[in-house]
Design a protein that fits this description.
The complex is a heterodimer of chains A (about 270) and B (about 280). Chain A is α/β, with parallel strands linked by helices. Chain A has helices at about 1-10, 55-65, 80-85, 105-115, 130-135, 155-165, 185-200, 210-215, 250-265; strands at about 15-30, 30-40, 45-50, 70-75, 80, 90-95, 170-175, 205, 220-225, 230-235. Chain B is flat. Chain B has helices spanning about 1-15, 15-55, 70-75, 80-115, 115-130, 135-145, 150-170, 175-185, 190-225, 230-240, 245-275. The chains are: A alpha/beta (about 270), B mainly alpha (about 280). The interface between A and B is medium-sized, with 26 and 23 residues.
């Protein structure tokens, strides 16, 4: 694996790093939200981000997605600045709230990213899958013409995921996307997200409040610490994929979850 | 034995308790629907009857208070006259509705895009709104003359303020997350306006347009009171001064009919355009 990467690096001159942060600081006035964050996000990996409230989980995603600037330090996405990456549609964002436009049908909401951005110089890349195929991928075939208020919370979030995939991003930033959903829907969407990750090979940074969700989804868990927000530990979750719901009842799973809980309590 | 025999056919008739409950509920629903229509209509008929009887019983002269039958008679007999005066008022009200709301929408857009413009002009808009329309109408007739323009301006003025306030709120009603989404998609200002802000504001705009649909008629009629020889407002003044009370009442009825027609048109347009706010 590492040999292959080195060869690839030598051949293309680019590292297999999706996003890299070097001594990044984020300040809101006198308040330091993120302090000295350095991290290389491996291309194609699934990261979950966990930490107490106020640790800057969401701020970190907003920093990477060029919504807020770094006070100092450097943030690169596939070797580009965050602004260049935004204009190249290297990344997509899924919010906690689905943030669908209520007057657009499910399909029209998925098409939104294809209609916006040309005036600012975005060359809009398209997925090899059409918007309606993406709705199929998230399990919403037949609901193309439904308006958001006709869909359940879980369905709306699936439309949001399809919308995020429509420009074939290489990095998917997800800010507690399933936080407001019930347990059953959340389980179902977790499985679907893993399937999408394996099919598309997209790198995922996934913020969550839930320890079981962090363990179940992630290859690596980034544990952040609060006041000021900084990286405490990167925990490897060496459970094999494809993962199934019953994985949660295994001792290995419980061991990881217990370890993360201890870390979280020590924060 | 007899007890069992009595019980059995009863059991056969009651096939399913939940289905029975459903039928009961439907009956109840239907009764409630009929009641919701019948009660107001019944009340109206009773009031009209009381009016008719009161006027006839106490021998009130027609020029002071005409009976409903007199008003109905005048409405039918004078219908061509009412209609001739209906069209100018409709025309003024609709023109005023369009110009007043268009101005309000454009100014709201300017307010949302520039805080300075808002600071400069919002107090003036509030001030103009505080002047009673009856006080400003003669001024406008002096400025624009007794023709069409003054009435359109008065109708426009009365529509203006509610639409301005609602439209500003509507354009600002976009959620912060939708704006973050727009930023991630590198949307330009005009893309944000056309694709996000303007559609978001439509439910607010239509609330204002429904108010304007009725007030623009008031504006046109007030304009006609100050100086006009045609229109429902002019007919109201004329029939008052000539003690043609039955005609006066019929004209008032016609004016409120005009408001209802405009209100209904806006409501229908709203239902066709704003399908997402249920």
């Amino acid at each position: 694996m590492s040999d292959g990467n080195t060869i690839l690096e030598a051949a293309t001159g680019s590292s297999p790093v999706a996003a890299s942060l070097k001594n990044a600081y984020v300040r809101f006035g006198a308040f330091t939200a993120i302090e000295n964050l350095s991290l290389d996000v491996e291309d194609g990996a699934f990261y979950t981000i966990l930490g107490p409230s106020g640790c800057g989980k969401s701020t970190m995603l907003r920093l990477v997605s060029d919504l807020i600037p770094a006070a100092s330090g450097e943030v690169n996405i596939f070797g580009k600045s965050t602004e260049e990456a935004r204009l190249a549609r290297e990344f997509a964002f899924v919010f906690q709230d689905a943030t669908l436009l209520p007057w657009r049908t499910a399909l029209q909401n998925v098409q939104l990213p294809l209609e916006i951005g040309r005036k600012r110089g975005v060359k809009i890349p398209t997925s090899d899958k059409s918007p309606s195929e993406l709705l199929d991928l998230v399990g919403l075939s037949g609901r193309e013409d439904a308006l958001p208020h006709e869909l359940s919370g879980g369905m709306r979030q699936r439309v949001a995921i399809a919308r995020a995939l429509v420009c074939k991003p290489k990095l998917l930033l997800m800010d507690e996307p399933f936080g407001a959903l019930d347990e059953m829907t959340r389980d179902h969407l977790n499985l679907q997200l893993l399937k999408i990750w394996q099919e598309t090979g997209v790198t995922i940074l996934f913020v969550t409040h839930s320890i079981p969700e962090a363990v179940f989804l992630g290859q690596k868990v980034l544990m952040l610490q609060a006041h000021p927000g900084r990286l405490k530990e990167v925990v490897e979750i060496d459970l094999p994929y494809p993962r199934e719901i019953k994985l949660r009842d295994t001792p290995e799973f419980t061991r990881h979850a217990a370890y993360l809980r201890e870390l979280l309590e020590a924060c | 034995m007899t007890m069992v025999d009595k019980a059995n056919p009863g059991d056969l008739e009651k096939d399913d308790p939940s289905e029975l409950a459903l039928i009961e509920e439907r009956k109840f629903e239907r009764r409630r629907k009929i009641e919701s229509i019948a009660i107001p209509i019944g009340t109206l008929i009773c009031l009209l009857l009381a009016w008719q009887l009161g006027v006839r019983l106490f021998g009130v002269p027609t020029y002071i208070a005409p009976a409903p039958s007199d008003v109905a008679g005048a409405f039918i007999k004078q219908f061509p006259l009412l209609l001739t005066n209906f069209w100018p008022t409709l025309f003024e009200a609709v023109l005023g509705f369009i110009t007043g709301n268009l101005a309000a929408v454009l100014i709201a857009v300017a307010f949302v895009h520039s805080k300075t413009v808002e600071k400069a002009f919002f107090p003036i808009a509030v001030f103009i709104n505080t002047i009673p329309i009856l006080a400003i109408a003669p001024i406008l007739v002096l400025i624009f003359g007794a023709g069409l323009t003054a009435k359109v301006v008065i109708a426009a003025l009365i529509c203006f303020f509610p639409t301005l306030v609602n439209m500003v709120r509507g354009l600002q009603s976009v959620s912060p997350q939708a704006l973050e989404l727009a930023r991630i998609l590198s949307a330009s200002k005009s893309e944000i306006f056309w694709k996000i802000r303007l559609p978001s504001s439509l439910p607010f705009l239509f609330s204002a347009l429904k108010i304007a649909a009725t007030t623009c008629v008031i504006g046109a009629i007030v304009g006609e009171w100050v100086g006009a020889d045609v229109g429902l407002g002019a007919l109201i003044i004329d029939s008052t001064f000539n003690f043609r009370s039955a005609l006066l009442y019929a004209t008032v009825f016609m004016s409120s009919g005009l408001s209802v027609v405009l209100f209904a048109s806006v409501s229908i347009a709203e239902r066709m355009i704003v399908r997402w706010h249920t």
